[in-house]
Amino acid sequence: MSFLDRFRPAPKISARDIDPDALSVLHRLHHAGFVAYLVGGGVRDILLGRAPKDFDVATDARPGQIKRLFRNAFIIGRRFRLALIRFGEKQIETATFRRDPEPDDAPGPAAPGGGDPEATGALYQMSDNAFGTPEEDALRRDFTVNALFYDPFEDRVIDYVGGLRDLRKRVLRCIGDPNVRFREDPVRMLRAVRLSSRLGFTIHSDSLEAIGRYADEILAASRPRLFEEILRLFTFCRAEEAFRRLHATGLMERLLPDVAAQVARSGGARAPLWRYLAALDRAFEKGLETEDRSDPRYVQENALRLAALLAPLYRERLAASNGNAMLLAEELVAGVLVRPFASPGWRPPRLLCEDLCCILESLVRYPSRNLRRRSAFSLPWFHTAMVFWNLCAEAEDDRSAAPALDHWREQFEQYASGPRPARRGRYVPTRPDSAEGRGFPGDQPEDRDSLFPGDRLRGRRRPRREAPPEGASEEPVSAPASSVSEPAPSGAGPEPGVEPADHRSADPADPNAPRKRRRRHRGGRRHHRRTDAATGDRSAEPPSEA
What we know:
- The chain is of the alpha+beta class.
- Strands 3-4-5-2-1-6-7 form a seven-stranded mixed β-sheet.
- A hairpin with a 5-residue loop joins strand 3 and strand 4.
- Helix 14 packs across helix 19.
- The termini are far apart.
């Protein structure tokens, strides 16, 4: 702390700026005898005068103690175990104070770089479950502005690392040696780019040099985390600035090499990509029309963001090739997003990639007015494609597309505001059901909310039993008297001198005689089943030998 900082008035945080559920978590932990602080981005945003996105709590209670104290808490994480306390759809992240683990704390598997400290991934941390004190917890965090604690019971901001000074200077500084911290967790380099662009801060010179020096280390991080961080670069309407900094630091060449090459070919700082991302930011600043997924006006945010990112590269490849537009879109999505970020146990969501391909391919078809609009309007990605068309026209300053866009918008509003059938899903069964049946996949609420709607209906379904026509007899077809006797009326016993019908005593030579059911053994051979045409009895018989 400098000499002037000692006489500077301490910042104040009002309880009205804190979420009531977060305050309730703090009070319950405090009354149970634990130390609990508000920490992280919530404290930073309140001090900057921003609305916090979420609130995190740090405490000296262990994850198991937190779970016993809160019935609505559950433990998550393997590398970093913490408790999520649910309040409806909202979650309060509650973590235990931690410290940097020693080499003997969590041996785990060897790092990718082995024993060489200069090798790629040699300092990557495989475990982070060493508990510590509040000061040790602050020192192990990524940036100084994220290591501020707020004690609501004493109404004071606790600063161990100089985060208040960096907030006033609007500087993003890494805690500790950035050459070591960025190699311990390479995703911190992406977080530095995202936070600096979102807050409008300047990355400290030491941290910026370390990012350029160890940019290759970013590939040592897990693929799902990298894909998630790339999607987070689009948030808070700062996509253009975030990707400009991603390109300036050299991280775009490692994560999105095809996009970086297209930016270099098309003018660098004057590349079309920046116009597309600026138009995307303006579109999200206006706000989305609805958040109801069943509404035709719903916009798929991630698909729209990735479509804006890939649109200049897609148009470049489309102009250089006369091939199928959908095949070009599929090859582009597979080469930029699927194969680079896929791992043995994870891959980018399939439906997101499919919708992204359809949205990109729609750039070729939307100027034509000879499309079947009613069938196009019912597609779940169609309104997202309409927003994407307007975005592309704005980025390219294409005024000739205005009549076609206005015509599509007018027709779609008539469809969305009037009575309409249920929206179609992504897959069509081979035999559509009747009007009173299930219909197309995606019509049911459970299909709309699931990750892969309609997967249960991809195969052919067994036809329903149709009701007999009016006036037809509903009595079953009687078998010959030699094989099956007529059923006796209810309440009456068997006729004297007549033995009751028994399947085991049927004549095996009679082709209409029911077959005896054959027991299927567990783990044995699976037998084919068939239905007897005369009696409706389902029997099992082994497959014929070839």
